[in-house]
Specification:
Blueprint: E1 3-8, H1 14-28, E2 32-36, E3 44-45, E4 50-52, H2 53-63, E5 68-75, E6 79-80, E7 89-91, E8 97-101, H3 116-134, H4 153-158, H5 165-176
Parallel strand pairs: 1-2, 1-5, 4-6, 5-8
Antiparallel strand pairs: 3-4, 7-8
Helix pairs in contact: 1-3
The chain binds zinc ion (ZN) (2 copies).
Length: 177
C-alpha cells in the first residue's frame, strides 16, 4: 500500500490543512496519511526575509517515507526561489515531493478583509497544482485549469479547483503506469 502523505509544519492552521488533505485525497485517489514536519527555519534567508523552497524540497526528499507515493508539504512560511520574488509553491516534476505556502493566499495579506472561503479554495487549488506536478503534469494553457500557472492570487481565483479534461486524462494515464 502506497500513501499520499500530506505534511504540515508546526505553524500551519488545521482548517487549511484539512481542506488541502481532503482535496488531494479525492482528486488523486490515493489514501492520504498525515505527517508532522519540522519547522523550515533552516531555509530562512535573512536578507530576503523568506524561506528557500529548494532547500525545503531537499529536506522533504530526505524525510519522505518509504511507503509514500508522494509527499506534499504545507507551510505558512513565505517561499522563494532565487529568480523570483516569491513562489506559491514548488514541486519536483514527476518526483516525489512538493511544498506549498499559505502565506500569500489570505485576503489579509493584501490588506483586504478576511474571507475564509476564498482562502481555503486557493489553498485547495494550489495543493492540486503542486501535487499535479509530482504526477508529471506541466503548466496548462487553460487558465481555468488547476495546472495553469499563477503568479498572483487573481490568477488562482480564475482557476477552478480541478484539472481540465486533457490534464485529467494525462493524470489517469500516468497513474496506471
Ligand atoms: Zn506550477
Ligand atoms: Zn489543464
Amino acid at each position: 500500500m502506497k500513501y499520499l502523505y500530506v505534511g504540515a509544519t508546526p505553524e500551519v492552521e488545521r482548517q487549511a490543512y484539512d481542506a488541502v488533505r481532503h482535496r488531494v485525497e479525492s482528486e488523486f485517489g490515493v489514501a492520504v496519511r498525515e505527517m508532522e514536519l519540522r519547522a523550515v527555519d533552516f531555509a530562512y534567508d535573512r536578507e530576503r526575509g523568506q524561506y528557500g523552497s529548494i532547500a525545503v524540497l531537499e529536506m522533504l526528499t530526505r524525510v519522505c517515507p518509504p511507503d509514500a507515493v508522494k509527499l506534499l508539504a504545507v507551510t505558512e512560511r513565505d517561499l522563494y526561489i532565487p529568480v523570483l520574488t516569491f513562489v506559491f509553491g514548488q514541486a519536483q516534476l514527476s518526483g516525489r515531493v512538493a511544498v506549498m505556502s499559505l502565506a500569500r493566499l489570505r485576503q489579509e495579506f493584501y490588506g483586504l478583509a478576511s474571507n475564509r472561503e476564498v482562502f481555503l479554495e486557493r489553498a485547495s487549488k494550489e495543493a492540486l497544482h503542486e501535487t499535479g506536478h509530482t504526477f508529471g503534469l506541466v503548466h496548462c494553457a487553460d487558465r481555468h485549469c488547476a495546472m495553469s500557472l499563477s503568479t498572483n492570487v487573481r490568477q488562482i481565483d480564475s482557476k477552478r479547483c480541478e484539472f481540465c479534461a486533457p490534464c485529467e486524462a494525462r493524470l489517469r494515464r500516468g497513474a496506471r503506469e
